[in-house]
Amino acid sequence: YGIPFYLQYLAHWPEYFIVAEAPGGELMGYSATALMLCMFTVMGKAEGSVAREEWHGHVTALSVAPEFRRLGLAAKLMELLEEISEKKGGFFVDLFVRVSNQVAVNMYKQLGYSVYRTVLEYYSASSGEPDEDAY
């Protein structure tokens, strides 16, 4: 995604942006966009129906720098995002993850998430590769 996408999220849902920082001030997370490198660790939003006043949280991006993985950081960031969603009146949190990303799929399952459905060709591929499905 480009910078306008992230800025729109930041403007609408600033409370859903969480950054993790090492004791020395080093940022431990980053987004997939090179221009946004080391700015965001977890990014989410609220989704739902204004008419029915039904809301839920949605994890848009979660990333931890390789040197800080396997420390429980992703689980803590998810916990914080879930708490924010609950305080805002959300009754669940959802997300999409690449079918091929078994490390992430397993982590989310350990955190209590389950596969609700498969969304065919959710992720656009580059350089002639086929699009990828998501859970």
Automatic annotation (TrEMBL):
<feature type="domain" description="N-acetyltransferase">
    <location>
        <begin position="1"/>
        <end position="135"/>
    </location>
</feature>
<keyword id="KW-0012">Acyltransferase</keyword>
<comment type="similarity">
    <text>Belongs to the acetyltransferase family. ARD1 subfamily.</text>
</comment>
<comment type="function">
    <text>Catalytic subunit of the NatB complex which catalyzes acetylation of the N-terminal methionine residues of peptides beginning with Met-Asp, Met-Glu, Met-Asn and Met-Gln. Proteins with cell cycle functions are overrepresented in the pool of NatB substrates. Required for maintaining the structure and function of actomyosin fibers and for proper cellular migration.</text>
</comment>
<dbReference type="InterPro" id="IPR051646">
    <property type="entry name" value="NatB_acetyltransferase_subunit"/>
</dbReference>
<dbReference type="Pfam" id="PF00583">
    <property type="entry name" value="Acetyltransf_1"/>
</dbReference>
<dbReference type="InterPro" id="IPR000182">
    <property type="entry name" value="GNAT_dom"/>
</dbReference>
<comment type="subunit">
    <text>Component of the N-terminal acetyltransferase B (NatB) complex which is composed of NAA20 and NAA25.</text>
</comment>
<keyword id="KW-0808">Transferase</keyword>
<dbReference type="GO" id="GO:0031416">
    <property type="term" value="C:NatB complex"/>
</dbReference>
<dbReference type="InterPro" id="IPR016181">
    <property type="entry name" value="Acyl_CoA_acyltransferase"/>
</dbReference>
<protein>
    <recommendedName>
        <fullName>N-alpha-acetyltransferase 20</fullName>
        <ecNumber>2.3.1.254</ecNumber>
    </recommendedName>
</protein>
<dbReference type="GO" id="GO:0120518">
    <property type="term" value="F:protein N-terminal-methionine acetyltransferase activity"/>
</dbReference>
